[in-house]
Design goal:
The complex is a heterodimer of chains A (121) and B (111). Chain A contains no helices and eleven strands. Chain A has 121 residues and is mostly beta strands. The N and C termini of chain A lie far apart (40 Å). Classes of the chains: A mainly beta (121), B mainly beta (111).
Amino acid sequence: QVHLMQSGAEVKKPGASVKVSCKASGYTFTNYYVHWVRQAPGRGLEWMGVINPSGGSTTYPRKFQGRVTMTSDTSASTVYLEVSTLRYEDTAVYHCARDPNGGTSAAFDYWGQGTLVTVSS
Amino acid sequence: QSVLTQPPSVSGAPGQRVTISCTGSSSNVGAAYDIHWYQQFPGTAPKLLMFGNGNRPSGVPDRFSGSRSATSASLAISGLQAEDEADYYCQSFDSGLRGYVFGTGTKVTVL
């Protein structure tokens, strides 16, 4: 069965960076794009970008360009999200999610359990 | 900064029918991009509930249905059950932002 397993919670100081991992199993890793979505406490869902694990091409929304980096390791079936120059408002649960459709029809059919990143001094 | 607007909350008695609207613009819903819906319980990851405007993944009861018009989409829950109490989000693509957007979210309460 499809499973996305994320790394554990992190506490970081403002200005630091954080790297979250998402290990995929139960399907052919390189056949599906993976997106990252975050949710601040008590808030809604926010799309952070997408990576094609086959080749590593990425797309980020303007809001996150220059501060977010997504990478993939096909040998480990794992994708990574790195957020730099952390601010208090980056405190959120970060989810990876698989995309069975791609393109403008992208939907998220399997999600990781989420990784809480807390930015605190 | 969600570009898809949903009512903050809807409620209904067990057995009733409730609908959740998702209103967008000409760069997303109005551009005929697919609308997807997610269900989220507190402390858990969202779950895909409806995709491609009205298709249910395996295991989703047929009490859930989706529809759309020119600039809005709707999720309907018929025969409301206590287990349907959750947050619901719509999602689509926005050509202006060149990325994916979520609705503001709706909390469904079963009275």
